[in-house]
Amino acid sequence: MRESNSHTASLVEIFSSLQGEGAYVGRKMTFVRFGSCNLKCRFCDTPQGMCTRDHCLIEKVPGSAKFDKISNPVSAAQLCEMMSRFDDSILSITGGEPLKQAAFLEQWLPSQRPNRTILLETNGVLHEELKILLPNIDIISMDFKLPSSTGEKEFWEEHSIFLQNSVASGKEIYIKIVVTPETTDHDIEKVIRIITSINKYIPTFIQPASPTLRFHKEIQHGRIKSLQRLCSAYLRDVRVQPQMHKHWGIL
Fold first, then answer.
1. CB–CB of 217/180 below 8 Å?
2. How far is residue 21's CA from residue 7's CA, in Å, rounded to a whole number?
3. Lesser CB count within 10 Å: N end or C end of the chain?
4. What confidence score (pLDDT) does residue 46 get?
């Protein structure tokens, strides 16, 4: 399969559903999931988004969970045609890590505005790519990837720059922190220091990792409460929120 570039993109799926995470839980929106990711978090619940694929799936009728299969990569014109099936006012750009295809998004996103509000769901690492897209993004859902949770290396500097640039842009932003039984106080304290140095009022969601085929560990409620207390001692808007779409049994 050809690699994606500024003219084409590798997609995983397009569908309409309720948002199950973060500040917009329960809001109906269209999700465009981009393929490929720069991380391999051990709790990842979308392994199909970790690499590029030879095809993508597009919902036949919004909300039906029945899909057409389309060859990858797709052009901006093709994606615009696909999007004509969907009329949700909010568009979630998710992955994988969508910022890996920032060159394509820079060309395509203007076609979706101002008729749609653009929500970027990102792991909060690729700050240079973020700068390219900020003019065409309305809301940023930024993850903090804790090494004790992900099994990856630390990205404190990248997260700090990413958050600074996001706040400086004036865009709406909220933060998600996925926690597992391995999550350490040290990592949480590092997140707290970064956020408080920039803006302690940013809504911050502690999200217990959901079980997957490869990840079966479940964090205890007492530990979740302890992490919330720790964060709430310094941050002004801390919420515990599981992945609600998993509870609802929807996409």
1. yes
2. 30
3. N
4. 80
CATH number (domain holding residue 96): 3.20.20.70
Q: What is the torsional sign of CA 147, 152, 154, 157? A: negative
- Domain assignment present for residue 3? The answer is no
d(CA 217, CA 209): 8
What secondary structure letter does DSSP report for 182?
Answer: T
Using CA atoms, how far apart are residues 71 and 52, in angstroms rounded to an integer? 11
Task: Give residue 2's pLDDT.
Answer: 45
Does residue 2 lie within any of the structural domains? no
| Structural domain contains residue 122 | yes
Q: Specify the number of domains making up the chain.
A: 1
Inter-CA distances, 249 with 214, 217, 228, Å: 19, 20, 26
Q: Give the pLDDT of residue 211.
A: 86
* Cβ–Cβ under 8 Å, residues 123 and 39: yes
Which residues does the chain have with pLDDT short of 50? 1-3
- Between strands 8-9 and 74-75, the pairing is antiparallel
Pairing outcome for strands 238-240 and 204-208:
parallel
Closest CA to 94 of 9, 214, 165: 9
d(CA 19, CA 250): 10
Cα separations in angstroms, 105 against 64, 115, 162: 26, 16, 18
Contacts within 8 Å (CB) and 24+ apart, 241-245? 241/21, 241/22, 241/25, 241/205, 241/206, 241/207, 242/207, 242/208, 242/210, 243/20, 243/21, 243/45, 243/207, 243/210, 244/18, 244/20, 244/21, 244/25, 244/26, 245/17, 245/18, 245/19, 245/20, 245/21
Residue labelled with tokens 């329960």: 26
